[in-house]
Specification:
- The protein is mainly beta and 778 residues long.
- It contains 8 helices and 45 strands.
- The longest helix is centred in the N-terminal third of the chain and has 24 residues.
- Belongs to the TonB-dependent receptor family.
- This is TonB-dependent receptor.
């Protein structure tokens, strides 16, 4: 915390000194501002990147190509303040979602593609590939006023290429290590000059993956197969009326990526690390979705315009996986998880926009309906020795073997067959209005308000059966003391109650809940000169509460959460218009934060529930600097400092105090440094280095030692990734070679995992990959 405060203070002082210097030198110099104007479209009022006070990182089509950013995970790696991957990413240390397997939860960061806000597993697994994309905007910080309940942490906005009024085509063929193959194409047809055009794009990206299943003899156990087919139609009947219809079909299929943990005593041993999986059964995760949107813009007159966005998603995801990740079969310590999820949503938004000299505004109405369903039938053997050891180290050997007692008290595997479903239907409507008013040539006032209303209809049912015979309390060894105040009879009573509760059925339950919130924001911007401005703004955001089905306690209800964000921004064009320096400093106060914890009174992390933490805070800074060193060479760099902390957080039973812990998987420093070179003959080269600091992957020891349920502190190590790509551009052909993770850095992206028998496991990041491609344009 001291280092963070020191770094944050240094950054704030630097920004203040720079601004003061710029004000003093304004009258002496007037730099030529010739940088490319990038328009940020992910907010109600479109503005250039330099006019947008919110912290935003923009990747244009040119940037994606120059840096070889093939998928959204590549983009996250090069965005300071963001970490993780497409299925689970973090903005300012806040996770994008609490798990798509829980349909009752709203998201904390939205992903929007061509106006369609993705939900459920489609968001996690169907938004990865970036072929024929015009721009990606990573909005860091609350966007609830802009996007509603699902954007407390931020948003990712993806805009694909619109049709153009000319005939053109692109074909790309490539391949690389680990069986990587890519085939992509674009065909754009001008149907009627300046009136109608259609654009068709398709892509297929396959890989054998890098997980080796030694049990099954498969080196492609973690294979991936992603494909997207997209059709967009542009119809512009007059200069005042424009519509773009988009349809895309997405398929995402992959295998298991979890690897064994090669280490002891909760310390990952990278010298022994291997991408090895021992599952005896196949594991597949398949997602398929259809997205459609219609964007209509009508310019009423020179002041007023109307925008309509109609969006639809239909998605389905199936999972079949080896629960125990070993050769064991059901009945002998094994298990199979079978799940089917459906996520359908549609939305309609109308905006009335006004723009006159010194006044800009957008007001409108939004409605959405989301239907999320998950059904499962799981056959699982619970490994009782591991569960007993979580309660008290060594208890598993005492109760399930003859190592201590002359007889076995519990057989080692508790068989269960679970079947059930959860369905949540969410209807949301909102009214919003946002305005910017120029008070004079230098001072601008911005303000807005959104009223958000949500209704959830929650339905769930579950049934679990077991053939296991529990031992009776009062055996001949029942009086043996295991710990102060606990003998074997007491342990048997506690264990039996938990196992009996585990197989207790949850009858059909229905509940309807309503949530509403007023979400204001206000800010002020001072334009020091044509190239430099500073802003300060305040925003409120929230996420609704809800219901969930827990393994032990049946249906659990949790409250909504709110966050107030206070932020200052600097926007500066420097060095005679060749450099762009942007910085944001923020502080956020989070109340009633929804957190998933282990259910009190249980001995396993399989028992989780959502609770509302009392108080949490976030603080940090983000800075980016791009500089055109010459006509052929560009430097880009960025840095983010982040601190997250639970200020007040007690478990529901009051036994454990989690206060003082940081958020899970929240690195405090992320940075990128790179350059792009291209000469007049078409030779180009790009190189960059990304850094992600270490982060906590489990709650640390509680400050209260009353309960034995405290979880040992576990961290993920920091890592640095080096990416290189180079090639040659001819008139219609581009040849390219690349190296991802050039130093073959070995790092983990999620080590908060364990096999059924308690053996820790992890998901390792991708190893070094070398590949090449050729692109034809015509």
């Amino acid at each position: 915390m001291k280092n963070f405060a020191k770094n944050g203070l240094s950054l704030a002082i630097s920004i203040a000194c720079f601004t003061a210097y710029a004000e003093q030198t304004d009258s002496a110099t007037s730099p030529s501002n010739d940088i490319e104007k990038i328009v940020v479209t992910g907010q109600k009022l479109s503005s250039s990147l330099q006019e947008t006070k919110e912290s935003v990182e923009v990747f244009t089509n040119l940037t994606l190509e120059e840096r070889n950013l093939e998928n959204i995970t590549d983009v996250f790696i090069q965005t300071p303040g963001v970490s993780g991957n497409q299925s689970k990413f973090y903005i300012r240390g806040v996770r994008s979602s609490d798990g798509s397997g829980n349909p009752s939860r709203g998201d904390l960061a939205s992903v929007v593609i061509d106006g369609v806000t993705l939900s459920g597993w489609v968001k996690s697994e169907g938004a990865g590939q970036l072929w024929d994309v015009s721009q990606i905007e990573i909005l860091r910080g609350p966007q609830s006023t802009n996007l509603g309940r699902n954007a407390l942490a931020g948003a990712v906005v993806v805009n694909t290429m619109d049709p153009v009024f000319e005939n053109e085509g692109i074909i790309r063929i490539g391949g690389g290590e680990y069986g990587k193959k890519e085939l992509k194409g674009v065909a754009n047809f001008n149907l009627v000059d300046d009136v109608s055009a259609i654009r068709i794009s398709a892509e297929s990206a396959k890989s054998d993956g890098f997980v080796n299943n030694t049990t099954r003899g498969e080196d492609d156990y973690g294979d991936t197969d992603h494909s997207v087919v997209r059709v967009k139609w542009l119809y512009q009947i007059t200069d005042n009326l424009k519509s773009v219809f988009s349809y895309q079909h997405i398929k995402s299929n992959y295998g298991q990526t979890i690897s064994l943990w090669q280490g002891e005593n909760n310390n990952f041993d990278f010298d022994k690390a291997a991408r090895i999986n021992l599952s005896g059964d196949d594991s597949r995760f398949d997602t398929e979705a259809d997205l459609a949107s219609l964007n209509v813009d009508y310019f009423v007159n020179e002041y007023w315009s109307l925008k309509s966005i109609t969006a639809y998603q239909s998605g389905e995801r199936s999972r079949y996986s080896d629960y125990d990740q070993t050769l064991r079969t059901f009945g002998n310590g094994g298990g199979i998880v079978t799940q089917n999820s459906k996520d359908d949503n549609w939305s309609q938004e109308f905006r009335f926009n006004y723009e006159n000299d010194g006044v800009r505004g957008s007001s409108g109405f939004y409605f959405s309906s989301v239907d999320a369903y998950i059904g499962s039938r799981n056959q699982l053997d619970l490994a009782l020795p591991a569960l007993f050891d979580e309660f008290s180290p060594g208890l598993g050997a005492v109760l399930t073997t003859t190592a201590v007692l002359p007889a076995v008290v519990y057989e080692p595997y508790f068989d269960t067959t679970q079947a059930g479903f959860t369905e949540v239907k969410t209807s949301t409507w909102a009214l919003f209005s946002e305005w910017e008013i120029d008070l004079n040539q230098q001072l601008m006032l911005s303000f807005g308000l959104r009223y958000d209303n949500e209704e959830q209809e929650f339905t769930t049912e579950s049934n679990t059966i077991s053939n296991y015979v529990l031992p009776a309390v009062g055996g001949p060894f029942g009086g043996i003391t295991l710990a102060p105040g606990l003998n074997i009879n007491g342990a048997i009573g506690l264990i039996n109650s938990q196992l009996a509760a585990y197989v207790a059925g949850v009858p059909l339950a229905n509940k309807t809940e309503d949530f509403s919130n007023l979400l204001p924001h206000a800010g002020i911007t001072y334009q020091w000169n044509d190239d430099i401005s500073t802003s300060f703004f305040v925003k409120k955001s929230y996420r609704s509460g809800g219901s969930e089905l827990t393994l032990l306690n049946g249906v659990n209800y949790f409250d909504e959460e709110e966050l107030w964000n206070y932020e200052a921004a600097l926007r500066a064009v420097v060095l005679d218009g060749k450099g762009v320096l942007n910085a944001n400093v923020y502080y956020s106060d989070w109340t009633d934060q929804q957190v998933a914890i282990q259910e009190p009174g249980t001995t396993s992390t399989a028992f989780t529930m959502t609770v509302n933490a009392g108080e949490s805070t976030l603080s940090g800074a983000e800075l980016s600097f791009n500089y055109e060193l010459s006509d052929n060479l560009e430097l880009y760099t960025g840095l983010a400092l982040s601190h997250t902390e639970y200020d007040s957080f007690l478990s529901p039973d009051g036994e454990i105090d989690y206060s003082g812990n940081s958020f899970l998987f929240a690195p405090e420093q992320t940075a990128v440094l790179g350059f792009y070179y291209e000469n007049d003959n078409g030779l180009f080269f790009n190189g960059n280095v990304s850094y992600i600091s270490d982060s906590t992957s489990r709650f640390s020891e509680p400050t209260s030692s009353v309960s034995a349920n405290g979880v040992n502190k576990l961290k993920m190590n920091s890592y640095t990734l080096v990416n290189l790509n180079s090639g040659y551009k001819l008139d219609s052909i581009t040849l390219e070679a690349y190296v991802k993770n050039a130093t073959d850095e070995l790092y983990d992206t999620n080590n908060n995992l364990s096999n059924d028998d308690g053996t820790p496991s992890t998901i390792l990041g991708a190893p070094r990959e070398i590949g090449a491609r050729v692109t034809f344009t015509f």
